[in-house]
Amino acid sequence: MATVHLRIGDLVWGKLGRYPPWPGKIVSPPKDLKKPRGKKCFFVKFFGTEDHAWIKVEQLKPYHPHKEEMIKINKGKRFQQAVDAVEEFIKKVKAKEQALHSLAEDKNRSGGDKGKANTTERGRKNSGKKVKSRGGKEEMTPRKRGRPPKEDKELTHAASSTVSRMGPGTVSGFKWQSQVNDDPQFHHFLLSQSEKPGSSLEPISKRLKILEEDTRSTSIQAADSTAINGNIIPTDKRIGFLGLGLMGSGIVANLLKMGHIVTVWNRTAEKCDLFIQEGARLGRTPAEVVSMCDITFSCVSDPKAAKDLVLGPSGVLQGIRPGKCYVEMSTVDPETVVELSQVITSRGGRFLEAPVSGSQQLSNEGMLVILAAGDRSLYEDCSSCFQAMGKSSFFLGEVGNAAKMMLILNMVHGSFMATIAEGLTLAQATGQSQQTFLDILSQGQMASTFLDQKCQNVLQGNFKPDYYLKHIQKDLRLAIAMGDSVNHPTPMAAAANEVYKRAKALDQSDNDMSAVYRAYIH
After folding, report:
1. Could you list the residue ranges forming a coiled coil in this record (predicted)?
2. Cβ 244 vs Cβ 356: under 8 Å
């Protein structure tokens, strides 16, 4: 295979994991972004998205020699938009070059003798240093070659290094390298796709998810659901799903929407009817679903429900045979998920934990964040499913790590909501406008969609569940217990937990977590 020489400014096709090759440009990474350890790689900005990633050099191809080949194998709408963006970029490069060339010719023609004198004078200022010739007269050294002016750098890089330098002869025999045996020390850095075009103006370094851990036990990789793969290609594996609650319903709807073959089961069978109408198949028991499917997901309310689903009568374990895959998406404690992993793998099954961060709304929109740990190859087999249900997924290493991370996230989540409720009620008690309090918060560093939605819920008295109050209290309780197990204090979470317990005593369990507000006014 011929050597391919790449440098900053080159237009390329970049391949990341199982995503299809995507057009991009090699750019300089942010100064505070460390280069991954291991093999040589380049920092690539992908066209048609707001995404960037470190890509190994063997996963890069020059753009022009491989353009026709790539267009033939990918027909997606977003892919075509990305290609159009590249071509528009190239047109701008050529147009600017032509404009500069024409400007230079005009100046040369219109100057005359005076122009020549002026040109000579300008040349003395710009061309180089004065040196003495042998005759004692001053002469000019040629200007040293170097970087182009800053304002032209983006365009001239692409023109000089990509358009002309890379010809077909330099890349004959180029093949994508397999990613199956990825260097475990090499981590991908991906930018989540921005919902608002204006956010692309933010510094890259502020919006990158830096995914490196110091602990050797944790291997981390992130994959954005929409970053590079414009069209999700559903896996040909048969998918099972157990539990059609607030989160599960949205997940299954998106799996079906993206073309997956899904068999569903729910303790309350009537909840399955809507999905059967949309093309899902019905399983009579958890064991039957596992027997019928290659990969079975579950998403239930708490550790007891998760154990009962696996170990109970006609449970998951009865359907597990060698090669069957089980993905636990419930938010449970690390001990429970480790126990479930052990019983599944003892029967020859493959196990992955994959709790999700989000709400009913985010579940419906396919914008969840998936935290996975366990069987790495199963994580990869679930790629199209995770793309359908979420905006990003993280692989966190060994079983138990995802449960720990999820409990920490929800501990912060729940404590924050309790603090906001406390602030709203204190504002009211001291004669301050709650709406003004919210307006001020929304203009500061704490501004977020979550803050705005939850506060509006409170002000409108609308506590329709988006995330059950009883579930966030359960997560706080489990997080506190996890802290106790490692002798780590969690006083803030403990205080918030007491407020949620009071809200539960006021019959707010099945309302949204924002109903914790009512614990302060009764």
Report:
1. none
2. no
User: Cβ(315)–Cβ(286) under 8 Å?
Assistant: yes
CB 255 within 8 A of CB 388: yes
Sequence-ordered list of residues with C-beta below 8 angstroms from that of 517, at least 6 positions apart, any chain: 421, 424, 425, 458
Q: Quote the CA–CA distance of 503 and 517 in Å, as a whole number.
A: 8
Give the count of beta carbons closer than 10 Å to the beta carbon of residue 15: 20
Q: Token pair of 169, please? A: 């002869």
The pTM for the full model equals 0.61
Average pLDDT over residues 384-391: 94
Look at the block and give the residue holding tokens 């509006």: 456
**Annotation: CATH topology of 232-399:** Rossmann fold (3.40.50)
Q: pLDDT tens digit string along 477-516?
A: 999 999 999 999 999 999 999 999 999 999 999 999 999 9
Pairing of the two strands 22-26 and 41-46:
antiparallel
Architecture of domain 1-189: Roll (2.30)
In terms of Cα–Cα distance, which of 432, 466, 510 is closest to 518?
510
By three-state DSSP, how is residue 302 classified? Answer: coil
Max intra-chain CA distance, the chain: 104
Q: Which CATH class is domain 406-519?
A: mainly alpha
- Distance CA(288)–CA(347), nearest Å, equals 16
Burial of 181 (0-12, 13-18, 19+ CB in 10 A): exposed
